[in-house]
């Protein structure tokens, strides 16, 4: 089980390094539990597209080695009507040595970008269901440049560099030891964490949490339902426009 204290502390660390590297978050990154409890349906995009903080140990109980602290800035979803975005963007805190379990995506294509700090190591292997194909060399796009790799090769990305990971490519990435905290970014097609992830080892995407201290922030799968009476109906949008007139 992942302790709430570890989640709170990791979010605080992420905020620190995002600020340090000049990466700014939208206001909802700092909304408290109390503030969220009064947010109405005007914030449904944040709830339905699972924007915001996302901290997990993938159910393994070894957060320092297998875990992720992410902030989803934008995403779409087909689970609810009205969110047609076909793209997503995240920031990811990469402490030295911590990584997500090896996985691939059925449909999502993602670019992983080193946004600042140390060095990101990314291991790539195209998914193959037979041995002959599994040993074959393949190509990847690194900053618009085609590179030829052997399966399992590890690419190192310096700040500003990025690699494109096509669907059905097994990948794992982590902050290189000795280079400090890194913030990576992910720009991708829409992210569907309920259906699109294939982990090579058993893993649960959202953790069981041991509530050893009060939560400092809701995670993206924990938001309370919209508070009644605080939603934005059509009439209130008109009211807002009125208030913005000089
Ligand atoms: Fe991924």
What does this structure look like?
Helix content is 17%, strand content 32%. It has five helices and 15 strands. It has one domain: Jelly Rolls (Sandwich), CATH 2.60.120. It is an alpha+beta fold and 246 residues long. The strands form four sheets. It has an eight-stranded antiparallel β-sheet with strand order 2-3-4-13-6-11-8-9. Strands 10-7-12 form a three-stranded antiparallel β-sheet, with no helix packed on it. Strands 1-15 form a two-stranded parallel ribbon.
Task: Provide the helix percentage.
Answer: 10-25%
Largest sheet: 8 strands, antiparallel
Q: Count of helical segments?
A: 5
Per CATH, the superfamily is Jelly Rolls
The separation of the N and C termini measures: 54 Å
CATH architecture: Sandwich
What fold name goes in the CATH topology slot?
Jelly Rolls
List the secondary-structure elements in sequence, H or E.
EHHHEEEEEEHEEEEEEEEH
Q: Could you say which structural class the secondary elements and strand pairing correspond to?
A: alpha+beta
Chemical compounds bound to the protein: fe (ii) ion
Describe the SSE topology.
Blueprint: E1 2-3, H1 4-20, H2 33-36, H3 44-48, E2 52-56, E3 68-74, E4 87-94, E5 103-105, E6 110-117, E7 120-126, H4 131-134, E8 138-142, E9 145-149, E10 153-157, E11 162-165, E12 169-175, E13 182-189, E14 197-199, E15 209-210, H5 234-244
Parallel strand pairs: 1-15
Antiparallel strand pairs: 2-3, 3-4, 4-13, 5-14, 6-11, 6-13, 7-10, 7-12, 8-9, 8-11
The site of fe (ii) ion has 4 residues, from strand 5.
Q: Which structural traits does this protein have?
A:
246 residues; alpha+beta; Jelly Rolls; eight-stranded antiparallel beta sheet; three-stranded antiparallel beta sheet; 5 helices; 32% strand; globular; disordered C terminus; binds fe (ii) ion
